[in-house]
Each structure stands twice: as C-alpha cells, then as structure tokens.
Amino acid sequence: MMRRVRTRLLLRSCTAIFALLAAVFATSPQAVSGERVKNRITHVLELFTSQGCSSCPPADELLAKFADQPDVLALSYHVDYWDYIGWRDTFGSGHNSERQRAYAKAFSNKMIYTPQLVVNGLYDMVGSHVGKIERMMKKTQLPAGGTAVSVKIQRIGDSIHISVGPVQTPPGERKPMLVLVNFADSAEVKVDRGENQGKVLVSTHPVRGWQLMGMVGSDGMNVDMPVSSVLPDGNETYGCAAILQAVRKDGSPGAILAATQMEIDPD
C-alpha cells in the first residue's frame, strides 16, 4: 500500500513539473524560436556616443539599464567625429553622425555633442543626466498625440516581415517615414588609445546600420527582407527595429509615432 501511495505521489509531482515546464516554454519566445519581440514600446531612447569621448561611459552604462525595460527601445549610435583624438570607434559611422545632425536641425541646436540622448524624437539632453531623462520619459510616451499606429515585426522562415498600418496625414504635412535600424546585442571593447585609454567599454545595442524604407500613407506599408540582412555570420545576437517617425516641414526628423524591436539569436 505504501509503495502505491508513493508511486501516485511521484506521478503527481512529475505531472506538475511537466505542466510547469510546458507553461514556461510556451511563454518564452527564446525557448521556442530564438526571437524576442517588443511590440508595445512606449519610449525610444537614441544615444549618440563615442568610445573616444571620456564623458560617454556613464551614459553608456545608463542606457544599458533602460534597455532592460520591456517597453523601451534603446539604441547606441556611435559617431565618428571623435576618431581624430587617437582612437577609432569600432562602431563609429558617418551615417550615425548624419542622423545626429538631422536632430540638431530639428532642435535648432547650433552644435552636436556626445553623449546626447533623444527621447521619442522630441527632446534631447545629456545622456548621463538620469533625473532629466526620467522626467522627459514621464512627459511623453508612445503613441504620440494619443493616436495609435500599428507597427509590427515578425520572423517568417528565412524572412523578416514588417507591417505598418495606415496613417492619415493632415493636408500640407509630410508623411511619416519608416526607419529600419540594425543593431548588435551588446559588445565589450578595450580601448587602447585616446581619452578612454585602458578602459573596457560596454555598448548596448550599438547600431550597425540604419536606412529609410519609405514614407507611409493611408495604404500602410509591408516590408519583407531576408533574415541574413540582420543576422550576419557569427555567434552573436543581433536585432532590428522598425521606427515610424514624423517628418517636420523642413525635412528633419520629428516625433516618433510607433516602434517595434526584434532580437534574433544565432541558429
């Protein structure tokens, strides 16, 4: 009798454990497909930074903390204009510097600087000023203006599909643009020269490239691209983000209307 009781208890325990494991794997995107998607983003934080800038490491560390939040898309745009000091930024890009200059035009800034953080395309500030960043995040969140726009991303086999719902633009205003950003998960880099000589710097979501996919109107937009364009050879986790952003009358970037993010683990 005791053996039967123990057997029944053991079977119940095993059943409970299997049920728990099944629930865990069912709710974990990584366990099923190796992708993690953020579709309900309320804040897009764009940090313009450089491995050659001694003021940037605190901002880099702060961005890493924000990136862990489920409703935040955090991106590190490494610029190239500090390379002359003695260290060539491993992620530095003139294209990233162009995006920062476009924001400078939008904000009527006379100069560009690092570390600069832009919140939802609306406000810019020093990227290490945590108090001001948090205040600006409370002040604004997506969807801007209370009008939700659908932007979704998903992997279908060897392709990535991005869909944007219809957008009604008032007469006389420019249509918003869809921006595609490719980024690495994170990276540690030992700096041998320049202002940060001897330091090991950690970059969160360093941007590897970004491009304008087109303007979105009343018909919406659908984009398909190969996974290989986001996931290069190697054993690192990479990702992409789709950002729908308003365009000001002068052509400079405006408020971010919606965004989504996907991280992909190597196969």
TrEMBL record:
Keywords: Signal. The keyword Signal applies. It comes from the Bacteria. Pfam families: DUF1223. Residues 1-31 form the signal peptide. SUPFAM superfamilies: Thioredoxin-like. PANTHER family: LIPOPROTEIN LIPID ATTACHMENT SITE-LIKE PROTEIN, PUTATIVE (DUF1223)-RELATED, PTHR36057. This is DUF1223 domain-containing protein.
